[in-house]
Amino acid sequence: MTQEFLLSVTPVEGDKYLIRTEHERMSAGVPVAQEIVTWQVEDWIEQAAKLMDDPLLGLLRSGTPTSATPPNSSSNSNLVLLGQELYHALFQGTIRDSWLAAQGIAQNQQDILRLRLGLMDNRLPRLPWEVINGGDRPLATGTDVVFSRYQLGNVPVYVGGGSGGPLRILMVLSAPTDQDQLQLHEEANHLREELERDRSSHQGPEIELKILEQPGREQLTQDLEQGNYDIFHYAGHSGWGAAGGDLYLVNSRTGLTEALSGEDLAGLLVNNGVRMAVLNSCRGGHGATATGDSIENLADALLRRRVPAILAMAERIPDDVALSLSRLFYRNLKQGYPIDLSLNRSRQGLISSYGSQQLYWALPILYLHPEFDGYLHNVGIDGIDPIDMMNSPMVMDFDGLPMDDFEGGMDLSLDDDDYVSDRSTIADLMQGLNPTPESMFPSSTLLPQSPVDDLLVLGKTLQHSGDLTGAIDAYGQALKLDGQNAIIYDCLGTALQQYGNLPEALSAYRMAVQLDPTLDSAQANLNAIRHGDPSRVFEIESPGQAAVFGNSKSHQKSNISPFWKKPAPIAIAFIAMIGLGFGAIKLGEKSNGKNDPIVAASNDSNTSNSNISVLVATATEEFSKQNPRRGQEAVEALLNQNALVAAETALSAASSSQINIHGISYLRGRLSWQFAAQGNTLHSPQDARRYWVIAAQKEPNNSAYQNALGWSYYMEKNYDLSTSAWTQVLTLTESDKTSKDRAMATIGLALNYMQASKKDSKKAQSLKAEAVKLRDRAFKARPDDFTEKSIINNWLWTEKMIGDLKELRSL
Q1: What Rg do the C-alpha atoms of the chain give, in angstroms?
Q2: CA angle in degrees (0–180, nearest 5) for 177-181-182
Q3: Is the pLDDT of residue 384 over 60?
Q4: Which has fewest Cβ within 10 Å: 197, 263, 577, 585?
Q5: For residues 87 and 233, what is the distance between their CA atoms, to the nearest angstrom?
Q6: pLDDT in tens, 504-522
Q7: How far apart are CA 811 and CA 808, in angstroms?
């Protein structure tokens, strides 16, 4: 089953827009909402146009980088930032509350949530809404939420559903001699092989593909009239135009271009019952690089005639990528999935095949009629469990390429708006939900009798399904309602430990034991961590039972895809623990005595929950009082204590205007760096580098920023850029020969010389000699910084860096 969430955006005046939920199509319990917002759409379009016209995309056909691409630029990272900005602009105020409620209901009922976005404006469709990013991943790349656009206006009710016979596709290959030549034959042959292979092994519809090569208008018309096709797939060239763009066919006499207007094509498709058009051509859909509000494309014409489904490209797409997309998309349709879910899965396949640094996944645009459920065949409606849709492995198209998993490409950081507001607690979201079937739980398990029980069951259900952050969120909300419940603390600890945050798991277990000393499971969990056995993991027997903690060989770690998981709920749970027995001062409460609370908590050698709570509360208060410097000091103190979840919580209190301050960017980079050093797969050195680039750009004369940036480049084996950053540090610290940053930069340069010696055998000796010279200079300037104890206590040193330093010592 799927849940519907329809949003419409219409212009009001100037830069003001009305966003409203289309409640007629949404589930019971999702509140109606509307907001009038002010958007700087032209700025977004300009930004998107630059991203889509990036040198990387300018080389889509060749697939090779050039010197024109700045080494430290990341179009993908910038696209993520734009996606997050669009997300926060779209989901704000009551709209956000309604969206969170819809997510909660869909998650609780284990349904897919279908987000449909209707746009009424000449400018809005040009924005890349497919990249909207809630903080953990683009929504259009998942299987729990599927995304499409729809046409606003006088939309007639769509009549028609999936067919019972084979799915018939007409694939048109068109390459006029006066146009750039495309690898169309290869695309068609590969696709045909894919669809004909293992016909008997799939659960979805049988697919029949007819290839029509180099047709003119007359031949295309004849085939559409006689073929009874479900899908029209065009592979060729197209262009913008005043009459819905043009499709470029081939004149049978001259071999030159024979244009078919978008309006004429739309008429052909509608009159012949074609329910989906796939336009594998440049300029077939709305793109940011289009010029002029009066210019239309093929998608515009097809939308006006209410073609139920249209898949078009925002920009030019390389032939090999188009081939991969076609294979992935039809492979998913062949399994009986609806169109929007098939495309979401295909986007993820493109990411896995080509890497997240390529923006190909963002180019396909899907338009679905608001009354169309996306199924082109009846098998998909009753033949597939929606949970299987979400949990089944992604259909990938590896072709020998490594899995990328967004590594180094996606900015997973979250801003303050990513966190659940007080108006939208999980308890609120669960009101009105259908009762959980008794069959989900063992007969010995009591069904929920209160909101706390509801949340406890929800948390266990989410934990059982692998959604750890959702489970942590639910447990945290339960603690707000019942802060003296040892079982909730125990469950929270199991989720935190599975998530990989041992310090906070330890805190939760301590609270559980303190509240109920007879709770054997919490005591066992606590002892396991204290005695150095944190690798023991949890096996959730059922949503209705408490987590079972053990070290038997049969226990397996959850197979959780890192970029799907959202760290925000951990912050919510931690806030709940702060206010419920961890000894924190409350916001606005002044510290007693003359001591600065930050200094006092930082100087206390006992990194207790009380000290951590004081720092979190202080940071939150200072950020709210517009004292970002003091907030930064508290966050830095938390990072010095390695209280990373608490630091993340504190940083989340920074406002949208504060979050871009160079000092906060630096701390966000440090947070990612320390998380990554702990093995947290939600963070990477690349994430840290992106933040440090921002900090260094805003404050280029800060030696700490340049030093950290140098080490991030070193970890990426980009020795030229690390040398540049560290040379800048030496220039900035010329007046202080014994500064810490200067010593670290000097050691970094020594390591670069050592690495260079391994690649140049002729100069190896002289390069090693220079490495030794720099090493000794750093050791002499700050000998205490390079002792074993100091290195262990220095957050910047990673395992790899320590190994390289040992090698440098041996020279």
Answers
A1: 29
A2: 140
A3: no
A4: 197
A5: 31
A6: 777 788 778 877 888 888 8
A7: 5
| Distance of alpha carbon 92 from the chain centroid | 19
**Chain centre distance of CA 211:** 37
Residue 651 is predicted with a pLDDT of 85
Weakest-pLDDT range from 198-207, 304-313, 384-393, 635-644? 384-393
Question: 356 with 141: CB under 8 angstroms?
Answer: no
Count CA within 13 A, CB hemisphere, residue 435.
8
Q: Is the pLDDT of residue 557 over 60?
A: no
Phi, psi for 241 (deg, rounded to 5): -170, 175
What are φ and ψ of residue 401, in 5° steps?
-90, 145
| C-alpha to C-alpha distance for 297 and 381, rounded to whole angstroms | 32
d(CA 111, CA 102) in angstroms, rounded, equals: 10
Q: In the structure encoding, which two tokens stand for residue 175, read together? A: 């390459």
The first and second tokens of residue 281, run together, are: 């051509």
Q: pLDDT tens across 757-776, in order? A: 998 888 899 999 999 999 99
Taking 60 as the threshold, does the pLDDT of residue 398 lie above it?
no
Integer Cα distance of 675 and 693 in angstroms: 18
Confidence of residue 364 (pLDDT cuts 50, 70, 90): very high
Whose CA is closest to 494, among 444, 558, 447? Answer: 558
- In Å, how far are 10, 650, 663, 799 from 795, measured between CA atoms? 49, 19, 17, 11
Q: Which of 162, 171, 167, 146 is nearest to 334 (CA)?
A: 167
Q: For residues 196 and 14, give the distance between their C-alpha atoms in angstroms, rounded to a whole number.
A: 53
Residue type, 808: L
CA distance 469 to 462: 8
Cβ contact 20:7 at 8 Å? yes
Contact of 6 with 26, CB cutoff 8 Å: yes
| Residue 450's pLDDT band (cuts 50, 70, 90) | low
Phi-psi region of 255 (alpha: psi -120 to 50; beta: other; left: phi over 0): left
Residue 303: its H or E element = helix 298-304
DSSP single-letter state for residue 377: B
Dist. CA 676–CA 669, nearest whole Å: 11
Q: Beta-carbon neighbour count of residue 161 at 10 Å?
A: 14
Distance CA 275, CA 289 (A): 28
Question: Strand 112-119 to strand 34-38: parallel, antiparallel, or no bridges (unpaired)?
Answer: unpaired
Torsions phi, psi of 309, nearest 5? -140, 135
Separation CA 515–CA 526 (nearest Å): 14
CA 581 to chain centre: 34
Place of tokens 């098939």: 342
The strand order across the sheet containing 238-239 reads 238-239, 246-250, 257-261
Residue-wise pLDDT tens digits, 666-683? 999 999 899 888 887 667
Residue 285, judged by CB atoms within 10 A of its CB (0-12, 13-18, 19+), counts as buried
Q: Are 350 and 324 in contact (CB under 8 A)?
A: yes
- Containing 599, the helix (H) or strand (E) segment is helix 597-603
Query: For residues 720 and 725, what is the distance between their CA atoms, to the nearest angstrom?
Result: 9
H or E element at residue 793: helix 788-793
**Locus of tokens 């599927």:** 146
pLDDT of residue 636: 92
Task: Supply 269's token pair.
Answer: 């498709």
319-336: average pLDDT: 86
- Give the chain's length: 811
Exposure class string for 573-593: b at 16+ Cβ within 10 A, else e: bbbbbbebbbebbeeeeeeee
CA angle 420, 472, 632 (to 5 degrees): 60
DSSP-derived secondary structure for 230-248: SEEEEES-EE-BTTS-EEE
Q: How far apart are the first and last CA of the chain?
A: 64
Distance from C-alpha of 3 to C-alpha of 112, rounded to nearest angstrom: 6
Strand partners, 138: 133
